[in-house]
Amino acid sequence: MDKDNRHATTSFPPARILGIETSCDETAAAIVENGRALLSSVVTSQIDLHAKYGGVFPEVASRQHILTIYGVVEQALQQAHMSLKDIDAIAVTRGPGLAGSLVVGVNYAKGLALAEGLPLIGVNHLEGHIYSAWVYPVDVVEPPPAPRFPLLALLISGGHSELNLMYDHLTYEHLGATLDDAAGEAFDKVARLLGLPYPGGPAIQKAAINGNPHAFNFPRARLEGSWNFSFSGLKTAVLRVVRQFEAKKQELPVEDLAASFQAAVVDVLVTKTFQAARKYKAKEILVAGGVSANRAVRTAFLEQNEFPVHIPALSLCTDNAAMIAAAGYFRYALGKHDSLDMDVLPTWPLLPIEGRGSA
Ligand SMILES: Nc1ncnc2c1ncn2[C@@H]1O[C@H](COP(=O)(O)OP(=O)(O)OP(=O)(O)O)[C@@H](O)[C@H]1O
Ligand SMILES: [Mg+2]
Fold this sequence. Notes:
Layout: E1 16-21, E2 26-33, E3 37-45, H1 47-51, H2 58-79, E4 89-95, H3 99-116, E5 120-124, H4 125-131, E6 136-137, E7 151-156, E8 161-168, E9 171-177, H5 183-193, H6 200-208, H7 232-247, H8 254-279, E10 284-288, H9 295-302, E11 309-310, H10 322-333
Parallel strand pairs: 1-4, 3-6, 4-5, 7-10, 10-11
Antiparallel strand pairs: 1-2, 2-3, 7-8, 8-9
Helix pairs in contact: 2-3, 4-10, 5-6, 5-7, 5-8, 6-8, 8-9
Adenosine-5'-triphosphate (ATP) is lined by residues 24, 125, 129, 157-160, 184-185, 187-188, 199-202, 205, 289-291, 293-294, 318-319.
């Protein structure tokens, strides 16, 4: 299959990357061309398997990855009408995540790389979330604009909430992070308090549609003087209201509580991100991670004229392998290959490049 010049990424060599993601409870594979053009993406979720445990059961997750990974990778190749002969490198999530889950993807990627004589690229899952914001379907008429640096990246996922200043591809300055719960975790915990199903983010978004965001004046932890976040006080404030209603045996106003909670989270995320973008003279803002799927979050960032905003397609906000292939492409293009004795890094933070285990 010919490589399409329309999708070339300025000054980087053309390449098709097969991405593999198994950091938690999704087994995913995808093929991305030149770091941005999506040729295929397959994601299988284990949510139903873990529901009875009330969270992800690590051993169940890793064994399920073993059962699914072969079929998922085959499907990604078929969707793109390709074989491994059309692929230039294998990118795989090396961390952070559950060790037993990461090991399945990493070993599978090693097997493919060895068998096909392809470079192996270990990718940071958080870097993957960031790169998801620039991925677009290969058949678009006009590819959306590429990033302009410096860029302020807000990462809001199930396990992380952080602000990073990005100076160039793969080059970050960490500004701040949550001191307690991640934004997605706060959505999940508050959903449980309100009797809503897991994952809590989509459930709260749905309940909030008919709720009044001003019904409860929940606290906004601004943490002035730092770029950190804190969501545990907000969660406790919701709990206190829930207890008051329970004590009075009154029906819980779930829709108003969901809308008011969501408004408080959005307010804090937007305020701090814009403050940081102004302070560091960022040219653009990027928002990524599962919580970037939230409609109120998207509206707040997209319906303003101060900064251009990159935000992933809805299907690429939560875990997927397109983001791993996309980030992997830039590591590949910059010659950052890994060896076949690469280990997983379950607690790998998104650090400046000098601090990386594999750089
Ligand atoms: N529409 C939504 N509104 C708010 N939150 C959402 C929405 N959709 C998903 N989420 C939240 O996103 C989180 C999942 O995102 P993601 O897959 O990026 O996290 P993760 O991979 O578990 O964590 P990490 O990437 O930090 O390791 C969950 O907490 C979920 O509730
Ligand atoms: Mg994730």
